[in-house]
Design brief:
The complex is a heterodimer of chains A (428) and B (308). In chain A, helix 3 links the parallel strand 1 and strand 2. Chain A has a 7-stranded mixed beta sheet, with helices on one face. In chain A, strands 2-1-3-4-5 form a 5-stranded parallel beta sheet, with helices on both faces. Helix content of chain A is 36%, strand content 17%. Chain A is globular and about 100 Å long. The longest helix of chain A is centred in the C-terminal third of the chain and has 21 residues. Chain A is an alpha/beta fold and 428 residues long. Chain A is built from 11 helices and 15 strands. In chain B, helix 1 packs across helix 9 and helix 2 crosses helix 9. Chain B is 71% helix and 5% strand. Chain B starts with a helix and ends in an 11-residue tail after the last helix. Chain B contains 11 helices and 4 strands, in the order H-H-H-H-E-E-E-E-H-H-H-H-H-H-H. Chain B is mainly alpha-helical. In chain B, a hairpin with a 2-residue loop joins strand 2 and strand 3. Chain B is globular and about 75 Å long. Classes of the chains: A alpha/beta (428), B mainly alpha (308). Chains A and B meet through helix 3 and helix 8 of A and helix 1 and helix 10 of B.
């Protein structure tokens, strides 16, 4: 026989209701933890080029990431939880990159993956991130994200892509330097983006590309490529990456001497290299694209000043502790900004754990304007949720007295192009 | 650019490659000739030479020439000593067994590469050349109707690159003189000809082996010190020279010094010329194809002698 439980009295019911109401009133205080279920850190898997041809970038991407995480954690973390970075070396190798993504998802239990730069590693890793449903925030520059080659789980919210960079700068090149261009670029995805999109952009300006010289990324000597540069070249467009960049620029100078065409380069050809290195004197008066100006400019914003100090970079773009350790300043801000986008996305979606990954993706997709701020020290940005690609300002600098002086900044509108994909239609 | 200056530029660039390649390959060939050891770690000794050159140049300071000259002496000696130590502690213990030495030197390759990565780091670092002036070469030709001198665009070389070509030539002459004219060369040749007989005549074969392994590695290191002001010291830089050195040694004939030098010249120059006129990838394809052809039609190499 079941025992009768004493019936609820009216007073008792009222008491319970009052208690519930009191509880509900205090909801915002404890709800954060109830939702987070724990105060465990948010794990961000950092795919880092510690070794291989991307090592110089990897070192500075690491320092920038550390500085951004320190700032975010000091400010209370994300949703009350601290960020923990789990760095794994991918050897700047696509195959290893995919393995690292697997480790993040299966072994370390990371909430998201982050950080990689070299486009062949991004392209090698992104399919695995998509299969594992691990949000993969890349800080590359390739057009592969916005081209639709990858998947809904890959986003590039912290740095602009090559297509928008070259499109925005082609008018400056054709108006100020010349219309007959010869291009030198690395022979892999990132270089092919330059080849295709700059050629198209300069054509639109009424110019033409006379010759396209592709160089394998592992090459160590370059003079043998230079005779292919046609005599009637008005502008030499160069972009190189990897450990041999100094050799490349030096040999370029030795080849031309005091003759030669106007030179427009991407700072990639000189990232982590001191402009005052012997043999680079010929760069005086040549032009460079910079994502963020390496040398502190006169009108440096307070946000950039704060960022520069936080990452430990001096006025010349080198480490404050070692002036010979030159940073990859034009690219590494992407790590800082991406981490702040992850934070904003997780806060907007009330991210609590891996089950909220789709909500995080949707929250980031919903971001539009990103005003210049401490979170975005490089400048204001506009995120396109359909293509998963951010758009921002580009800078052209000229070498004057051994320093890079900014001479032109493009608008965000200059960098826009029609959407090539709508990732939001893909299932999560 | 006109064909003439173009060709000379290609030849000069090729000659620099050939010079360094000859030094590296002669080291490899010497080790194989005397010891019958296929040294897979040879490229890493090359890399070590460049890395040590950077350290030495950093420590010496002052005028770049001081650091460079110090590196030119110190790096080959240190690398040679390391290699000799590796010979005594590893290769000797496995009795120079052909298969086991291959595995052992592969192990050595990874140990050297990873230790360099852990200490020196993954960056590429430059060593300043002792002198590096751009030498503009004049070109004489018919211009329309009159004969005159011109300086075609881009036609130049640096004094340092010329120095590399001559320095490598001088070192190779030195190696030849050592092998042909000195007592130690005689001992090496005796050991190469017949190890057991040499032992029977009281030649300290083991010491000769350690010395040869050291000299072989030292030559690779010397090549690297010469190249490091042009390129940069990087922990992965040993891969390509190893491959090219093997190509050269196979084409020239295993253990044949004149064959190695000639093959290095051939591969270096063809690399320079084909790279300029066609593409660097084609140069590599042709070199590999040549190795295949040599192995099919003349397995002992162009200058090798058939063993057994």
């Amino acid at each position: 026989m079941t025992k009768l439980i004493k019936g609820t009295s009216r007073r008792g019911a009222l008491k319970t209701l009052a208690g519930a109401a009191a509880g509900a009133a205090s909801l915002p205080l404890w709800a954060r933890y109830a939702q987070a279920q724990s105060a465990e850190p948010i794990k961000i898997g950092f795919q880092q080029h510690s070794t291989g041809i991307g090592a110089a970038y990897g070192r500075w991407y690491g320092r920038t990431t550390e500085a951004a995480v320190k700032l975010i954690n000091e400010g209370g973390g994300i949703n009350g939880r601290m960020i923990e970075i789990i760095a794994e070396d991918d050897g700047t190798d696509p195959k290893r990159g995919a393995e690292v993504v697997e480790k993040f998802a299966n072994q370390h239990g990371c909430d998201v993956g982050f950080g990689t730069l070299f486009s062949h590693v991004v392209i090698g890793s992104a399919p695995r991130a998509g299969e594992l449903k691990l949000p993969y925030f890349v800080v590359s520059e390739g057009h592969h994200v916005a081209s639709g080659m990858l998947n809904r789980y890959t986003l590039q919210p912290g740095i602009t892509d090559v297509k928008s960079q070259v499109q925005a700068m082609a008018p400056y090149v054709s108006e100020n330097l010349g219309k007959k261009v010869t291009m030198i670029f690395p022979d892999f995805a990132f270089g092919h983006d330059h080849r295709d999109f700059f050629s198209a952009a300069i054509k639109e300006q009424g110019g033409e590309v006379l010759e396209q010289i592709a160089i394998p990324p592992s090459e160590t000597s370059f003079t043998k490529y230079f005779p292919q540069i046609p005599r009637d070249t008005e502008v030499l467009y160069h972009v190189m990456v990897g450990p041999a960049v100094l050799t490349f620029v030096k040999e370029l100078g030795e080849f031309f001497g005091d003759q030669g065409p106007e030179i427009f380069g991407f700072i990639d050809s000189l990232e982590a290299v001191d402009i005052s290195s012997p043999g680079l004197e010929f760069l005086e008066g040549t032009y460079f694209w910079e994502g963020m100006p390496r040398y502190a400019q006169e009108d440096q914003s307070e946000h950039e000043k704060f960022y520069r100090e936080a990452v430990g970079v001096d006025e010349n773009g080198a480490s404050v502790s070692d002036p010979s350790d030159v940073s990859t300043y034009a690219h590494m801000f992407g790590c800082w900004e991406t981490l702040h986008v992850i934070k904003a996305g997780m806060e907007a979606s009330g991210y609590a754990g891996p089950e909220d990954r789709p909500a995080l993706i949707e929250a980031v997709e919903a971001m539009g304007e990103m005003p210049e701020s401490q979170a975005h020290p490089q400048g204001a940005k506009r995120f396109n949720g359909k293509t998963h690609q951010v758009f921002g300002h580009q800078h052209i600098s000229r070498v004057e007295n051994g320093r890079l002086v900014r001479v032109h900044t493009t608008s965000i509108d200059d960098t826009l192009y029609p959407d090539e994909v709508d990732y939001t239609t893909q299932p999560l | 650019m006109e064909f003439g200056p173009h060709l000379i530029l290609a030849t000069l660039e090729g000659a620099v490659t050939a010079a360094v390649l000859a030094l590296t390959a002669v080291g490899l060939s010497l080790v194989f000739g005397v010891m019958r050891v296929v040294n897979i770690a040879h490229g890493e000794f090359y890399m070590l030479g460049a890395v040590i050159a950077w350290y030495v140049a950093q420590m010496v300071g002052g005028h770049p020439a001081l650091g460079f000259v110090a590196a030119l002496v110190i790096a080959p000696l240190v690398v040679g000593a390391l290699a000799a130590a590796a010979d005594v502690t590893i290769l000797k213990r496995i009795e120079y067994d052909p298969e086991r030495t291959i595995v052992a030197t592969i192990g050595l390759l990874y140990i050297i590469q990873q230790l360099t990565l852990m200490t020196y780091g993954p960056e590429a670092r430059p060593v300043e050349a002792p002198f590096n002036t751009r030498v503009e070469l004049p070109w004489f030709d018919w211009f329309e109707t009159l004969f005159g001198m011109a300086q075609p665009w881009g036609w130049s070389i640096t004094s340092y690159k010329l120095f590399v070509i001559f320095a490598a030539g001088a070192v190779l002459c030195g190696v030849w003189a050592m092998m042909a004219r000195t007592k130690i060369g005689l001992l090496m040749r005796a050991t190469q000809a017949d190890r057991d007989m040499a032992l029977a005549f009281g030649i300290p074969v083991e010491r000769v082996y350690a010395l040869v392994f050291g000299i072989g590695a030292g030559l690779a290191a010397l090549g690297a010190v010469l190249i490091v002001p042009i390129q940069q010291a990087h922990y992965l830089m040993g891969v390509e020279p190893l491959l090219l050195a093997f190509i050269v040694v196979i084409i020239g004939g295993l253990g044949s010094l004149p064959g190695t030098v000639l093959a290095a010249l051939f591969i270096g120059l063809s690399d320079g010329i084909i790279s300029v006129f066609f593409s660097p990838t084609l140069a590599k394809i042709l070199a590999t194809l040549l190795v295949g052809l040599v192995l099919v039609f003349r397995p002992q190499g162009l200058f090798g002698t058939r063993t057994a």
